[in-house]
Design goal:
14 helices, alpha/beta, three-stranded antiparallel beta sheet, seven-stranded mixed beta sheet, aminotransferase, Aspartate Aminotransferase, domain 2, Aspartate Aminotransferase, domain 1
Length: about 400
């Protein structure tokens, strides 16, 4: 095995050394060696990709659809995305210049941040939130401004947004909102989005709206800031959660052409283009798969209700998730507030893997995230193990 020469041993991007690796993956890896453990750690749908979507990918391969596409994505896919967003958000996007297809929402976010942020820019990020956002912003030289939303029930209120903008000043250039939220499952009502939009419009902020869980809302229709602020919003989404297509790595960004042009340029430098069979599958999913997420959503709703009911009886406190597929629960007070210690002990002694809330930023301390993107049988056994663990401590 080669060993790097001494002269190159420190040759690492210094900004990269300042950010830790994925805390979710690191904790998941740490507990994976526990014999017989059940892991409800990752946001990975347990459903199979719908058959008609899979067959579109197979057909693409069989027909030798295996060449470079345009960097922004095949035009038929961008047309399908535009039609879908018109149906669901009532926003008109030009497929030719206002949509770019990415390698999942992750690469979409990376292309947006590296294309549009500059050193010294401040980006507001309501927390707790998916921790990937922090390094993506920091690596550009911009500054993350965490807004701890725990006191407001894990949603950003207009009053809080106004206060933060007054405190941080004109260097605030953007806000990154994820709704429905990973990890809390909270979302934003149409009324609340209207109020936030007025403030964001007044301050001319770029809105990075991560709506990857938009098809998985349980109690109200999903609303979007892109509908209210189309001229300053980049809508980021994909098919990983809605159609269980995590391995296809198919995401997209939609927004004003002046911004999408820069995002597409950065995206092309990163990956050139998306693979053809994934794009063919996405066209099928968007054009003929509107009912696919409905089946998944009803299964998740049942699992959510079951898990919330069981955990509340054990002494956990939580808001009922309005979307996504996570429960974000406060540890019972007799266990203290060290969520890492609780989750590690639960893994080793209770053989159940969950994620400590602290990895999701300020406001996550003393909480844990549990995914219900798993079979009913696995969730039932997981709740039995959790109940046994907390009842014997």
């Amino acid at each position: 095995m080669p060993s790097v020469i001494s002269e190159l041993s420190g040759m690492i991007n210094q900004k990269l050394t300042e950010v830790p690796p994925s805390a979710i993956r690191a904790f998941d890896n740490e507990i994976s060696s526990v014999p017989g453990i059940i892991k409800l750690t990752l946001g990975e749908p347990d459903f199979a990709v719908p058959d008609h979507v899979k067959m579109a990918a197979v057909k693409s391969i069989a027909e030798d659809d295996s060449h470079y596409s345009q960097s922004a994505g095949k035009i038929e896919l961008r047309e399908a995305i535009a039609a879908y967003l018109k149906r669901t958000r009532n926003v008109d996007y030009d497929p030719a210049s206002e949509i770019v297809v990415a390698v999942g929402a992750t690469e979409a976010l990376a292309a947006c941040t590296f294309a549009l942020l500059n050193p010294g820019d401040k980006v507001l990020v309501p927390t707790p939130v998916f921790p990937l956002y922090f390094p993506l912003i920091s690596l550009t030289g911009a500054e993350v401004v965490m807004i701890n939303t725990a006191p407001e029930g894990f949603v950003l209120t207009p009053e809080r947004l106004k206060k933060v903008l007054e405190e941080e000043g004109s260097s605030v250039k953007a806000i990154l909102l994820n709704y429905p939220s990973n990890p809390t499952g909270r979302s934003y009502s149409a009324k609340l989005l209207d109020e936030l939009a007025e403030i964001l419009k007044e301050h001319h902020l770029l809105v990075l709206a991560d709506e990857i869980y938009s098809e998985l809302t349980y109690d109200a229709e999903h609303s979007s800031l892109a509908t209210r602020l189309p001229g300053q919003t980049l809508l980021i989404s994909g098919l990983s959660k809605s159609h269980a297509m995590t391995g296809y790595r198919l995401g997209y960004v939609a927004g004003p052409s002046q911004l999408i042009g820069a995002v597409t340029k950065m995206h092309a430098f990163m990956v050139t283009c998306i693979n053809d069979s994934a794009q063919a599958a996405a066209v099928e999913a968007l054009n003929h798969g509107d009912n696919d997420p409905v089946v998944f959503r009803e299964a998740y709703r049942h699992r959510r209700d079951y898990m919330v009911g069981r955990m509340r009886k054990m002494g956990f406190e939580m808001a009922v998730p309005e979307g996504a597929f996570y429960v974000f629960a406060k540890i019972p007070k007799e266990f203290g507030t060290d969520d890492f210690a609780f989750a590690l002990r639960l893994a080793k002694e209770g053989r159940l893997g969950i994620i400590p809330g602290s990895v999701f930023g300020s406001g996550g301390e003393g909480y844990v995230r549990i995914s219900y993107a798993a079979s009913d049988e696995k969730i039932e056994e997981a709740m039995n193990r959790l109940e046994e663990f907390v009842s014997h401590i």
